[in-house]
Amino acid sequence: MEKIKLSYSGSFISQNKINKAGRTLQKEIKGMSLASKKGYGNDKASINLPTDEKALNNVIKIIKAKKALNPEYLVVVGIGGSNLGTIAVQEAVLGKFYNQLNPRIKILYSDTVDSDSVQDIMGIIEPVLKKGKNIIINGVSKSGGTTETMANFEIFIRLLKKYKKNYEKYVVVTSDKGSKYWNLALEKGFGTLEIPKKVGGRYSVFSPVGLFPLGLIGVNIDKLLEGAALMRKQCLNKNIKNNPAALSAILLYLNSKKGKNIADLFLFSNDLESVGKWYRQLMGESIGKEFSVKGKKIHNGITPTVSIGSTDLHSMAQLYLGGPYDKFTAFVRVRGNKANVKVPDFKEYSNLVDKIQGKSLEKIMNAVLEGTKAAFRKGKRPFMELALPDKSESSIGQLLQLKMMEIMYLGFLMEVNPFDQPNVEDYKAETKRILSGGSF
Ligand code: PA5
Fold first, then answer.
1. Residue 28 falls in the annotated catalytic set
2. First to last CA, the chain
3. Among 32, 229, 258, 411, which is disulfide-ready with 50 (CB 3.0 to 4.6 Å)?
4. Is 389 found in the same domain as 246?
């Protein structure tokens, strides 16, 4: 399997400083290696998902059963860590236009309580149900009590019940074993898939949260996990030079100490945009903390942003190259596209833009990326680069695993707990209070 390559010659951080931070990180690399041998016993549990064969077999069993129903649509009802990873992998591997390309099973996502978009989804699936065809609803909630997810789930269940007598067999609930949602699913006879207790939402893409919907629509989940497992091995390496997660965390950390408190993930591939959104949650929720692990009020954080190349060069490049020196950029490039589209060789058009006739779009995109990097270097704008072999399942598995372990290492360097989200819980509790008649 071809590996992802990280280069950082444009990071403007000296090797000495990287080595020094690398020595600090040794303790955490050791902790991570220990966790890799301990199943789901501690906060770093998610690193063991890629090798959990029991969970995988269970997911495959339910996929087979639901595929046998010949569904036309899968509706994933979940929010945040409960759907961002699925969207990221689906779009990266199968493309943003997946639904329009006539797949066997189309996929729709319902996350927030937006009346119009929930209505639109119902407008798509109701005619399918009316025709006597099938759909699958996958409700995903770790806590089993997220307001938005439960509201939307109930709406889709009502619709399903209207058309299906044994509606239960079209529903799969993914949750924490023993949550209220889990118990209800058992009571109703829905399919159930368990999220290990210690695996938090934003680290759950390789659990049934991502594996079930992705496998159902045809993503090769074995290959996804294979890529993740390969990357996990690399990211446990004590030698920082060969440990991309540790190296990347160090670069983010040292740049933030130099005032670069915005981390831009600059993805030169349209289909990776949702990987950016997934990463925003991962970094935002894990690193943005009021208190340090020692209980000191620190209001820590790096603000994650997402850019798409070359699109955003036409909207953001002026700011990136001329604005404040407050950003550290991680370019992500894909070496092998699936398609090889070329500009036609029309001589009569050659005076519009010179030297593009007959060239492949990939070649033009590479020129744009190299040009951008040259401008960043010239302007002393720090960056690193991740080069993906392609957008196959194994490459995307590697990328997501790298990023999850990077954030764990970054949490250690910044002395914050990358696994909790006390302030998110705050808004959830306040919402429930207001919905129960409390004042606001
Ligand atoms: O990372 C997290 O824990 C959160 O963003 C959750 O994923 C999100 O709030 C959804 O929670 P739940 O899966 O419990 O419905």
1. no
2. 55
3. 229
4. yes
Ligand 1 center to residue 195 CA distance, Å?
12
Planar angle of CA 366, 369, 370, nearest 5 degrees = 85
10 Å CB burial of residue 428 (0-12, 13-18, 19+) is: middle
User: Does 177 participate in catalysis according to the annotation?
Assistant: no
Q: What is the number of domains present in the chain?
A: 2
Burial degree of 331 (CB within 10 A; 0-12, 13-18, 19+)? buried
What whole-number distance in Å separates Cα of residue 204 and Cα of residue 192? 16
> For residues 6 and 248, is the Cβ–Cβ distance under 8 A?
yes
Rounded to whole angstroms, how far apart are CA atoms 280 and 277?
5
What atom of ligand 1 comes closest to residue 143's alpha carbon? Answer: 14
Span from the CA of 146 to the centroid of ligand 1 (angstroms): 8
Residues whose beta carbon lies within 6 Å of some atom of ligand 1: 79-82, 141-143, 146, 149, 200-202, 281, 285, 421, 424
For 177-223, the pLDDT digits (tens) are: 999 999 999 999 999 999 999 999 999 999 999 999 999 999 999 99
- The CATH code of the domain that includes 211 is 3.40.50.10490
Q: Is residue 431 part of a domain?
A: no
State pLDDT tens for residues 386-438.
Answer: 999 999 999 999 999 999 999 999 999 999 999 999 888 788 888 888 888 88
Residue 276 lies in a domain: yes
Beta-carbon contacts of 434 under 8 Å, excluding residues fewer than 6 positions away, are: 440
pTM of the model: 0.96
Tell whether 144 and 289 lie within a shared domain. Answer: no
Residue 46 CA to residue 255 CA, distance in Å, equals 27
- Taking the CA of residue 78 as reference, the ligand 1 atom at the shortest distance is 15
Q: Is 299 a catalytic residue?
A: no
Rounded to an integer, the average pLDDT of 281-291 is 97
What is the Å distance from ligand 1's center to 133 Cα?
32
Domain boundary among the residues 221, 244, 273 is at 221
- As given in the structure block, the two tokens for residue 41 are 């016993």
Cα separation, 415 vs 67, whole angstroms: 46
Tokens representing residue 110 in the block: 């319902």
Domain containing 160: what range?
45-221
* Residue 111: DSSP 8-state: -
